[in-house]
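Re-running Flavin-containing monooxygenase to confirm reproducibility after the cluster update. Everything else is unchanged from the original entry.
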Amino acid sequence: MGKGEGCQITLDQQLSLSCFTVFSSGPKMERKIAIIGAGVSGLLACKYTLENGFKPIVFEARSGIGGVWSQTIESTKLQTPKSFYQFSDFAWPNSVTETFPDHNKVMEYLQAYAAHFNLFPSIKFDTKVTSIDRLVPSDEDEHSWDLWGGTGKPFSSSGKWNVTVQEARNAYQVDFVILCIGRYSDLPNTPDFPMNKGPEVFDGKVLHSMNDDLAAELINGKRVTVIGFQKSAVDVAAEVANRNVLPRNFYDRVQGGGLSLMKSRSFTFCKNGLVIDGETTPLVTDIVIFATGYKSDEKLKNIFKSTYFQKQITGSSAPLYRYWATVFP
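Result of re-run:
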């Protein structure tokens, strides 16, 4: 599951283009800013708001920073050269000599960045935001907004955002919210199946590639089927292969036609495996891993309590400022 493809300029240069425009003027210290997520984009947002004189609160559901980099399979590494995946004011250390560092090196780099710019005091760990909601005066009609926030400016003279946190008695009230919740985590995209033909009839185990549950004791000696064909699927398949012994002369048999690699537009589950479209014999397997991506728009939509704002995610985004950076995780 390589990260960072498509990144052609340094990480903070991309986000700073947005943050400078949003926060470069007006009163600062009295304005409360919530940043949801402490992955790469959350750390950048925290750094730039601090530099502009604000005191942000970063809500992070997990116990540490890093987003998807903190929870991934062992073989994960950058697939963009590290010179294209770095902070312009915080270079990779000389000790990292690889062009494509693995996820452990990336995490060390992010930890060092957060420590260098003193970001940790602004982060509330193990604090999961369950919803955000716009609170407006009774005489203000957010449905009539033509501009972001009603005025086209980051802060309005009226109205707040309620940030509700899991297991907290009271919500946080802030003036501005920056969502850095990522597109590649939390809400898996899995296929729908006809009744009695889905995972419920399968005697084995079904996972999604987002699970950090691909431990050796789980997959060693098991027959594993990976669903998908993008980078994550290939990486998961490689991880499984590294932990199991391939059949003797496996690649020779594939090349000679003794083994065939199958693809299908559809499949269903049965008691002992999968029924592949067009095949008469079930594919017997012990574990099925879906490497089928995530529902990123739905994840973003679900964080809003108001159905009005939920619709802005799937329809017009005029009242919201939506900045998709190509810096991912």
